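Hey, quick one: can you model this chain's 3D structure?
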Amino acid sequence: MGRLSLARVTKFSQIACVLAVCVAPAVAQVAVTPAKRTMLVGDSEPFRAVDSQGHMLTNVHWTISRQELAEVAQGAEVEVVAKQPGRFTLTAHAGEGYAEAQVEVLQGPTMPLGTIRWSGVDWPGCKTAKIMPAVPSETGVADVFEDAVCADGHYVAAYTAEGIMAWRRKVTAKSGVQPSAEEVAAAAAQLNTHGACICDSISISMKRDDVRALLAARRLNTSSETKNAWVIEEEGTECRLWFDAQSWVSKKRKTLVSE
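Sure thing. Here's the predicted structure for all 259 residues.
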């Protein structure tokens, strides 16, 4: 029996697709945000797995290529603690697929001049057109807007100061037409459905006891609490607080929780 050539195999496959409907499998777009990050030894920074709409993925398992360089706490959103200088890959494994982030850890008290702290997601077929500062009162969670040109139109994504993508939306259907400032503001306003949260009332250097009193006044509790870190959940938002050795708030992060 003669060998079946590649051309004949291709022809038979095309005939089979005529006889039975062939549907190409959908490839889910998954990303880790931020996609690239530079840290200092001792830093603790967040990473999140998201879909193409910026929604946080759940049931995510995280792995790192060099475990001696960092510690990773499992969860939908993780905190990575840098232990030693070097480079490693952080990978998120989810039911929708997997994605990677590249992390570099530097030694020293400060970042070298000109260091890029983090980079946003580089979606296939998209190119960043411009970066715009966000107005905090419009979204409550965004510090930066990214306008990206994609094959099917323009998309706007909102990022926090830590490089976490809060949301991503298509604002125009034509890839050659950039969105106006009004369209960007309208896209942001659609996501601003939660109003002010407890994080807006907490300031850096606030005492732990004062934060607890504020929670009592708002009839809120911490959903997770350790000696130096609290997590406070409200409808649609999550507030993470870090305390220093003197029980002052040293860092806070407000996150929009997407449905």
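One thing worth noting: Helices lie at 6-19, 136-139, 181-191, 198-201, 208-218.
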